[in-house]
Protein 1
Amino acid sequence: MSKTLRLETILAHAGIKSDKATGALASPIHFSTTYQHPEFGQSTGFDYTRTKNPTRATLEATLAAIEKAKYALATSSGMAAIVLTLEIFPVGSKVVAARDLYGGSFRWFNDQEKKGRFSFTYTNTEEEMLAAISDETDIVYIETPTNPLMIEFDIAKISKLAHEKGAKVIVDNTFYSPIYQNPLLLGADIVLHSATKYLSGHNDVLAGVVMTNDDAIYEKLFYDHNTTGPTLSPFDSYLLMRGLKTLKLRMEKSTKNAKKVVEFLKNAPQVKEVLYPGKGGMISFKVVDKDKIPSIINALEVITFAESLGGVESLITYPTTQTHADIPADVRASYGLTDDLLRLSIGIEDEEDLIDDLKTALEV
């Protein structure tokens, strides 16, 4: 794909013209697990689908292009992307991470620390993170904005310091997507996504992706990707490619909707705090009376009570019992993830329907 094309064109053209044999506009789905060698000692470039699949390769080329990366590897889930990324680093690596993390990330990090695989230093703010990065640091791990407190970190500033100390920087860019942020251009070494979320956008694909511009890092990632097999299936690769075509349109609409919802929530007497970074579709808010959370959730009709985020449908999540339940209550409370917090993933519905739904539910 030409590097001169702009983002919207790259997205709209995801997968097209990839079938030279027939000229099919949409990318074919190559289900074959094995590929015929033309002759002894020759290869078409595809030998076994775990190593490389034509449909997945087309998807990965598009993902790399939109994230300004040289390389991309599509994985079977967002957690598979996280595990693949961290496991290229040696045993005993020291990690500085933001405390406000997706609960699944924390669960795996905590398990690895118990096993002696890594050691973690958690920080609540950007200032704390900068102070914690030292010559002993091997990895700096950032979600920005964070989940669910929506705290933004300065990737460029953190990357500069981390590199001075000899550390690598990993950024989870799930919430903003390449529409609002390109971490590699800001100095990060590796960027990853739960592609289940905004990249696919329709709550029907489980996927992840890891991207980098570093040749040595890519070689390690590719080796483990092939060896351990957390690869994305051909069909899911196709669905993700199809979802990418509308990424910019979806992100813009969800942001427009989210800004209107934030305006409403800030003036709702039942709400005491709204957490929103200014763009994207993710909002968290704290209610005055946490005992009313079950009735608020049950009264919603347009917004669906479900885990996950980033789809065309608006969802509400209660992190305390869902996405962040694996984080001990005292730890959650220590950094502001309190039991009165609800998280919204705003979709592409009519903004007034979303506001009316929230208004009715909050007044129950």
Protein 2
Amino acid sequence: MRSALVRRSVLTASAVSLALLATACGADKADTKADAKPSAPAATSAAPAAKGKTDAELAKVLLAQADLADHTFKAADPAESTAGAASTSDKPECKVLVQAQSFTPAGAPAGTARTKVVANPKAPAEGASEEEKAKAILGALGSTATALTLASYDGKGAEEAFAAVKTASQKCAGGYSANLGSDTGKISKVTPGAAVTGGDEALALTVEGEADGDKLTTQLVFVRKGNTVATFSALSLSGTAEQPKAVIDAQVKKLG
């Protein structure tokens, strides 16, 4: 399972490529009758439904290299989100969580933007031994890599999308399967992650699963700001990812 599903869907394909990259780098009318009172003004018209941002508009507020100099960014591969959209689960209500880990937002967004980001590992000291350099490389491979997706929605779409993942986090707490084509993975449990503040709503989850007998943990965070939802799916080749606080804080700040 590790060779396919873990890389492409359940835990995303980002970790290996990012770690290696880091080391390299009107009113109604009045009644006309004389004895009739003028009709009251029509009730205030409902405000027009909010319009979601387009892909191009989201690209302008998507976190980028200039925003976090101590991180390395790489463009997302469109094939990853395509694969994520085709993913399934034995529990239909859990599919939204499988997709969230694969660059695929809930619902029908008006626009999306995606990127991959990893914290740069600490470089070995000048004059370091070969052993110390090797340890630095291993440390880089253990860095937490984050798949970041922005999705903007028309009307109440963002609130509905956030509600869907919140409901899934409760209904899927006991685990579920995640399927991508012929590849199948198993999530053992979903628990609350470290609290995240910012935006209008925020939800942090720790998603635990197994691959070849090894425990693998993903930090999954959702933040809604207005009609845009930011999804952060963080993993590490070491097996246990840390919540990417710097990435989350910087992206939420950029959303305004």
Protein 3
Amino acid sequence: MDLRGAIITFIVFTVLLSLLHIVICIWSYRDCLRRGKSKEYAFIVLFGLLFFPIIGLIVYLVIRKY
């Protein structure tokens, strides 16, 4: 693979991960609202996932049942 192919692969991978991150943030915000949580709680979850995507998702999946 030449350098151009590696750069294109890297860019595509980065864009896909960014889209996945955005989708997870939107899903968690809407999930909070569907479960009857307040908008403030949903914003806290949203910002937690924006800044700490992997750990934030794990924490949210654990606490969402409570």
